[in-house]
Design a protein that fits this description.
The protein has helices at 11-23, 34-46, 66-72, 107-120, and strands at 3-7, 27-31, 54-58, 79-83, 98-102. The chain is of the alpha/beta class. 29% of the residues are buried.
């Protein structure tokens, strides 16, 4: 089973995305912001655990955005940014899949993005 990190400050959105991903057979760890996500990622990096197969992150969070997480985390995990707003084009990191989708997102749309991200990794 592939592990996915979900980052969203809104507990309802986090729960909805978690359920969507679990329904397609993914194991989900979630956090409520960028700093807790960076801690989880650092802890995972220090352990024998495999890196996350994917990061799904909300864009607009208090204090720090999903783009901050994308910029600050040096891992190679594919990254899917969910947003309720339009965002400026993002400069992709070499060898790292990046996509964004507008919320609310359907299970079918999220599944398609996840499949594309995992296939690219």
């Amino acid at each position: 089973m592939k592990d996915v990190l979900v980052v969203d400050d809104d507990p309802v959105s986090r729960l909805v995305v978690r359920h969507m991903l679990e329904r397609v057979g993914l194991d989900v760890t979630d956090t409520d912001g960028v700093d807790p996500a960076l801690e989880v990622l650092a802890e995972r990096g220090r352990s024998d655990a495999e890196p996350f197969a994917l990061i799904v992150c909300d864009f607009d969070m208090p204090g720090r955005s999903g783009l901050d997480l994308f910029d600050e985390h040096d891992g190679t995990e594919p990254f899917v940014l969910l947003t309720g707003n339009e965002i400026a084009p993002v400069e992709p990191k070499p060898g790292r899949f990046f996509a964004h989708a507008t919320k609310p997102i359907s299970t079918d749309e999220l599944t398609l993005l996840v499949d594309r991200a995992l296939a690219a990794h």
